Amino acid sequence: MRGQEVKECTAPHLFCYPAQSNFSGRKYPLSYVKGIQSQQLYPACEHRGRWYVLLDAACFVSCSPLDLSQYPADFVPISFYKTFGFPTGLGALLVRNEAAEVLRKTYFGGGTAAAYLVAEDYFVPKPNIVSRFEDGTISFLDIISLHHGFETLQKLTGSMLNIQLHTFGLARYTYIVLSCLCHSNGKPVAQIHCDNDFQNIAEQGAILNFNLLDCHGRTVGYSQVDKMASLFNIHIRTGCFCNTGACQYYLAISNQNVKTNLHAGHICGDSIDLIEGRPTGSIRVSFGYMSSFEDCQNFLRFVVNCFVDKPLILDQKRLTKLKSAELMESAASYDLASIPNGQLGQQNGQTISPSPERITPSEDAVSEEEKNNGSSHTLTNLFIYPVKSCASVEVTEWPLGPQGLLYDRLWMVVNENGVCLSQKREPKLCLIRPVICLASNTLQLQVSGMEPVTVPLETSLANSDLRTSQSKVCGDRVQTVDCGEEVSTWLSEFLGKPCRLLRQRPEFQRDMKFGPGKENCGPTALSLVNEAQFLLINRASVSFLHEHIADRYSHQLIQRFRANLVISGPQAFAEDDWSHLTVGDTQFQVIGRCGRCQMIGVDQKSATRSQEPLRSLSECRSGKVTFGIYLAHQSARNTTAVPVLSVGARVIPRISESTDKP
């Protein structure tokens, strides 16, 4: 509307804004509430008609008190999950009585009607606003738990004001130390996204948002940081936090960048953290009433141990300035004098860096002869993994099928809800040893101390006893066949929980997703793999990593990376720059590098977890945790011959025209 129409408009207006940004923790003035309502704050408020204010307080009230008598917003959404950490999905919409009359629903559900007819368009809502808007049965069991939440909060903290002082003090301490950390060359370790120096509790909440930088000033991908943090039991949030506006503002992401990133394969919530070196999101650390000073120290130690080029340097000029800054609103501050010069401090007599113990190199270390074996590459090992996340089967010669190596990852173990299990949550899967018997057309599963169980390799859908179902693998819907009760009972007994074995349906076609590096790759059929048909690792790269972690690591590196093809070669990580390769007479296209997670920390012989080798992989590759490359088979034209890979075959790589070394 414009001109005279604007002046004559008497429709109600709604102004919405957050009390606190969930991205950066910035607090917006609560005085805006009365300013908008009185039509004095914003030029558009001159429009006739009443102005209502919706104050989004979900993030704000988790750690700060809110007095609605002083700031009388008309509508206030809050989240109990953000306040208590339980229950999930429960919140409330606070509505001022005088504002309730403008709320009208365009639909109705059970329990909200005073009367309605089926044959006519006739519906009368209940007069009470609560009854009018709460459709169906409310979550009364979750609501009961809120009483205990408020009671616990009061007993432990005394008041929301105490929580605000406590959490702001933790956030400020972490901000000061993190912002002063520097690499050995003086470059900052972190780029912090905020609009202040954490000096005013009325302007900043208990949230710290940042990106980590390497010693060259390049951004470390947030998904890599998240993977490393999980090894140290540190829980962080990464991405854009459903706040695209703030993400674009702080990271300087243009509208065109968002569209280009989508075309490059990045969608909200995925792990693509860098595109052409620019971050697609950031890292957020949030503090609550249960957070402690030790949590801050543990987080900062984690950053120093994993992402700082040693020796650590502290920006003393900035540190002195921030430590001496006067805090407003009498905010609590932890003893910043505990930060000594040049290092992050000591606790209980122990410094940040662990004291490594030297161990004997593993049996999987690559020999000097192998490392210096000229410029040729050779296929040294061939592995298939019939059951996803279970042990490998090593072969010397094996045929290729339409989806990769024949029988590779055609089966998977799922829980009672049909969710695929992996070693991330069930490390004991690695102790299950599959055995393929082509002569009897069977797959046998073996575990120490139990009788083996057998299922057919091929599944006939004509068998009426078989149950078909839909499952998901990496977001893809896959059609599967249940392998029966006998193997289900066997798996459930070993894993100690209800489980079933599913096989991918023979006629089901699952295609590789489009994404970076896959543009020129035609339709590629996949089994139950995560990303691509094949995974290749280089023994020279394994040797390099082993030497890096030999001081604090044991053995079996090759098995932990769960590759299909293992090759020998003279140069570590040379495979990162390949675009194509030929193994014997079989041609492959390189799809991309394999991003690693905490699953490589599972010892494939004992099912125990450790921080290695992911921790050292991140250190020696400047924050990146890629190891190995994904491949897709390029079928030869005008031939019906079945390709076969053999150990000892020569590997001939082709270098990519555009390389992007880590």
UniProtKB/TrEMBL annotation:
Residues 489-654 form the MOSC domain. It holds the Pfam family MOSC. It comes from Cyprinus carpio (Common carp). Keywords: Molybdenum cofactor biosynthesis, Pyridoxal phosphate, Transferase. SUPFAM superfamilies: MOSC N-terminal domain-like, PK beta-barrel domain-like, PLP-dependent transferases. The modification N6-(pyridoxal phosphate)lysine is found at residue 82. InterPro entries: Aminotrans_V_dom, MoCF_Sase_C, MoCo_sulfurase, MOCOS_middle, PyrdxlP-dep_Trfase, PyrdxlP-dep_Trfase_major, PyrdxlP-dep_Trfase_small, Pyrv_Knase-like_insert_dom_sf. Sulfurates the molybdenum cofactor. Sulfation of molybdenum is essential for xanthine dehydrogenase (XDH) and aldehyde oxidase (ADO) enzymes in which molybdenum cofactor is liganded by 1 oxygen and 1 sulfur atom in active form. This is Molybdenum cofactor sulfurase.
